[in-house]
Amino acid sequence: MKKLAVLMPTYNCAKYLQESIDSILNQTFQDFDLYIYDDFSTDNSSQIILEYSDNRVFYIKNSKNLGIAKTLNLGLEKLLPHYEYIARMDADDWSFPERFQKQIHFLEQNSAAVLCGTQGFWLTDLSKLPTSGWQYPVDYNYVKLYLLFTASFGHSSLVLKSSFFIDNNLRYDETIKTCEDWDLWIKVSKKGEVYNLPDFMMKYRIVPTSNHRSSENKKIHLKERSIIISNYWKTFDINLSPEQIFEYYYDTDIKNIDFYCKLNILIDSFNKLFLNHVKELKSEDRKNLSYLLSRKIADFKKRSKVSKYNFKSWFILLTKVEFMSKTRLIKSQLN
Fold it and tell me: Which fold has domain 2-205?
């Protein structure tokens, strides 16, 4: 069995394709093959790819446009039986040279880990490099909770263990249009340990027309997110409907009916989540989670057009919140 296959889907991404491919071919870890799955591009992507003479590059073009989830599943079906690890890469992103070396080393040193991502910089211009960036959680026990609020991984930063995906028959859900990755990582986290490296090994390109950012997909994206998150809350024995998730997380036109009842439900859910899992978390992760929960409440209040100084909401917060000290709670709500 070979060591590593890199799975790169592309669709009309010729503008960025060479930069992305070069970042993979220039990795310090060289024992890999790169499979580029072209989802029936109509630009000059094929011309760019076929100019590469590197025998590690394989080009497959779909006979019609299938979408990202089905294209990725085609790649997994072909590659999982023949490679120990599968790495993801997007055709408009860029990997630092040590990425694969660090990820393969981590997975080989941590037998329980079945999937590993990295930190990355989110940029509109990849020639820029900020001195710091927003970070995903690292440790599995925090990642699995963080997945209740965000996808928790840069999709194209991942390396996964093939045997685990084969044994558990894990694939992308082809009925999901915009957040098939989030759904899959949740499924993986229920069965095995998932991690992020603390190292910044990626540059992610922010493209306004990308799958979930395009205007026509935005409503679909939030609806799909709400369903996925609602289902995942059930894993923690907490029932929040997709409609509740949408209102608590995303809705910008909240009807201010039964606000205090809704606030109580949200606090009760956060209390239960935190108290049931606090012992699993490292000290810094406990602190970060409690702050995240508090800010989610503050955001819900703001979108509900409730003043941050509203007396009744403060009374509920100060008497009911159990995941944070009153001093930290006050500070976090007023930020």
Answer: Spore Coat Polysaccharide Biosynthesis Protein SpsA; Chain A (3.90.550)
